[in-house]
């Protein structure tokens, strides 16, 4: 067979198997088939909590009652005055797409007593790194206030809760938190800031596995091929790359009650426009405060379905919500406050796409309040069928946004990171060094950890399996072509 023909065949086979692989993974194993029902459930729970607040205000007349928040997540656990004796109640309080995140529920309490991070291969018992790599479900708490300066990425195993309530916990340094091919992780009530790239070293991901990691991006929280993740009441700022990135087929995620500030590329959802499995990504973003010093990506979405509900957007320097590759964006009951610059009033931004291509993208604004000239550019053919159920319960007015987000950030102290970093020796400058055109590519040459906990038996195989199999088939095809003098004869079962 002529060399040109062999090269053509090689390219065809590569493209064919890549297309088949992507198509087969369009529906993720834990993707919610009816996302609008999740949206409706969120609104129902907000309505119930607001109604309960109004009743208590009328009958009890006690404005100090913590059950008067109207925030269904906080009301779920804060109404119990003895919550500290039943910390794991928190696992029942998530809403939205990440509400199935169990964290370390039903596992033992692990108390972090040592703030050091000296050894990434053999972590010291009592440290956060030692806790998060264990196989069994663990509910991780902290014995005292502490600043944990990581040497490298903190690789978190499945079925873990990092619960900072009752202590002033800061996580900073190299990495920082990486969730890769894991499930059921809750990160609650911690400061995360000044995260920088690190790596090119060995890092333990479980009691039985150590792997070589390439250089990390410097995300605050990196979610890679993971599911059932809940980030709540955290304060994130000043990281090198994203504050929270969720990519490579991650889904079933809720990001709530958190305080974002002082950063450029705030949140990326979706790996690449061409990465089809991210079409199954589903994320709820609720009751967060997007504050001072933010530039863009709150979030920036590729494919998938994102419900942005009852958040307070107080600043942006480019745009608030952007996307590409036809993501579904359902914006309900948010407050968008535009900057004074007359050229920056638009909330939305479609990336690298002309109007003719994004006209049918499903971007909706319902019950949002626009301040200082802010405007949201919707798209799609009217109210599509998939929104009918969601709209059957009207979103609560964004006039209640002050009440719903007043406790966003870390509880029990400064809710953002400004005072924390000045007193802990952190940086005070702006964050994020990447232009908007960056694709969020990931170093794929580092060791990929499975990191599944004991309770995650039966989970999907590692995404590395498909590329390895395809490479084997391609090499085998070229070998047969060469040996048989250009006559291609491959058993059918090898192509299936």
UniProtKB/TrEMBL annotation:
<dbReference type="GO" id="GO:0046872">
    <property type="term" value="F:metal ion binding"/>
</dbReference>
<comment type="similarity">
    <text>Belongs to the polysaccharide lyase 1 family.</text>
</comment>
<keyword id="KW-0479">Metal-binding</keyword>
<feature type="compositionally biased region" description="Basic and acidic residues">
    <location>
        <begin position="342"/>
        <end position="354"/>
    </location>
</feature>
<comment type="pathway">
    <text>Glycan metabolism; pectin degradation; 2-dehydro-3-deoxy-D-gluconate from pectin: step 2/5.</text>
</comment>
<keyword id="KW-0732">Signal</keyword>
<keyword id="KW-0106">Calcium</keyword>
<feature type="region of interest" description="Disordered">
    <location>
        <begin position="330"/>
        <end position="354"/>
    </location>
</feature>
<dbReference type="InterPro" id="IPR012334">
    <property type="entry name" value="Pectin_lyas_fold"/>
</dbReference>
<feature type="domain" description="Pectate lyase">
    <location>
        <begin position="145"/>
        <end position="342"/>
    </location>
</feature>
<dbReference type="InterPro" id="IPR018082">
    <property type="entry name" value="AmbAllergen"/>
</dbReference>
<dbReference type="GO" id="GO:0030570">
    <property type="term" value="F:pectate lyase activity"/>
</dbReference>
<feature type="region of interest" description="Disordered">
    <location>
        <begin position="412"/>
        <end position="435"/>
    </location>
</feature>
<dbReference type="GO" id="GO:0045490">
    <property type="term" value="P:pectin catabolic process"/>
</dbReference>
<dbReference type="Pfam" id="PF00544">
    <property type="entry name" value="Pectate_lyase_4"/>
</dbReference>
<dbReference type="InterPro" id="IPR011050">
    <property type="entry name" value="Pectin_lyase_fold/virulence"/>
</dbReference>
<feature type="signal peptide">
    <location>
        <begin position="1"/>
        <end position="22"/>
    </location>
</feature>
<dbReference type="InterPro" id="IPR002022">
    <property type="entry name" value="Pec_lyase"/>
</dbReference>
<dbReference type="GO" id="GO:0009664">
    <property type="term" value="P:plant-type cell wall organization"/>
</dbReference>
<dbReference type="InterPro" id="IPR045032">
    <property type="entry name" value="PEL"/>
</dbReference>
<keyword id="KW-0456">Lyase</keyword>
<protein>
    <recommendedName>
        <fullName>Pectate lyase</fullName>
        <ecNumber>4.2.2.2</ecNumber>
    </recommendedName>
</protein>
């Amino acid at each position: 067979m002529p060399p040109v023909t062999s090269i053509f065949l090689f390219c065809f086979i590569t493209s064919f198997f890549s297309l088949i692989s992507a198509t087969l993974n369009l529906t993720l194993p834990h993707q919610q088939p009816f996302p609008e029902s999740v949206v409706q459930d969120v609104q129902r729970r907000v309505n119930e909590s607001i109604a309960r607040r109004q009743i208590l205000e009328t009958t009890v007349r006690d404005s100090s009652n913590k059950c008067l928040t109207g925030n269904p997540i906080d009301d779920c656990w804060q109404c119990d005055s003895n919550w500290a004796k039943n910390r794991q109640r928190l696992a029942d309080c998530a809403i939205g797409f990440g509400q199935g995140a169990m964290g370390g529920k039903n596992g033992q309490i692990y108390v972090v007593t040592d703030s050091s991070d000296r050894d990434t291969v053999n972590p010291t018992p009592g440290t956060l790194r030692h806790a998060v790599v264990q196989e069994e479900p663990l509910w991780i708490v902290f014995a005292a206030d502490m600043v944990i300066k990581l040497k490298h990425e903190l690789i978190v195993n499945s079925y873990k809760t990092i619960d900072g309530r009752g202590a002033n916990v800061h996580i900073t340094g190299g990495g920082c938190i990486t969730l890769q091919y894991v499930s059921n992780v809750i990160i609650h009530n911690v400061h995360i800031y000044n995260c920088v790239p690190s790596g090119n070293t060995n890092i333990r991901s479980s009691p039985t596995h150590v792997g070589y990691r390439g250089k990390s991006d410097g995300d605050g929280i990196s979610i890679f091929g993971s599911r059932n993740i809940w980030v709540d009441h955290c304060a994130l700022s000043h990281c090198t790359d994203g504050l929270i990135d969720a990519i490579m087929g991650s889904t079933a995620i809720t990001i709530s009650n958190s305080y974002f500030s002082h950063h450029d590329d705030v949140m990326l959802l979706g790996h690449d426009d061409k990465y089809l499995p991210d079409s199954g990504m589903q994320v709820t973003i609720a009751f967060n405060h997007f504050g001072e010093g933010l530039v863009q990506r709150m979030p920036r979405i590729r494919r998938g379905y994102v419900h942005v509900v009852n958040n307070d957007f107080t600043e942006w320097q480019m745009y608030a919500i952007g996307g590409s590759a036809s993501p579904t964006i359902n914006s309900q009951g948010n407050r968008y406050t535009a900057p004074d610059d007359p050229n920056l009033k638009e909330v939305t931004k479609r990336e690298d796409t002309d109007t003719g291509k994004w006209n049918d993208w499903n971007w909706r604004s319902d019950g949002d309040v626009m301040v200082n000239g802010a405007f949201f550019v919707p798209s799609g053919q009217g109210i599509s069928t998939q929104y009918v159920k969601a709209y059957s319960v009207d979103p609560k007015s964004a006039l209640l946004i002050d009440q719903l987000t007043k406790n966003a950030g870390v509880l029990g102290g400064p809710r953002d990171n400004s005072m924390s970093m000045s007193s802990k020796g952190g940086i005070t400058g702006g964050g994020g060094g990447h232009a908007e055109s960056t694709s969020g590519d990931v170093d794929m040459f580092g060791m990929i950890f499975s990191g599944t906990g004991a309770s995650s038996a039966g989970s999907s195989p590692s995404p590395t399996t498909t590329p390895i199999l395809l490479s084997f088939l391609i090499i085998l095809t070229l070998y047969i072509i060469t040996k048989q003098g250009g006559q291609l004869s491959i058993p059918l079962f090898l192509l299936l």
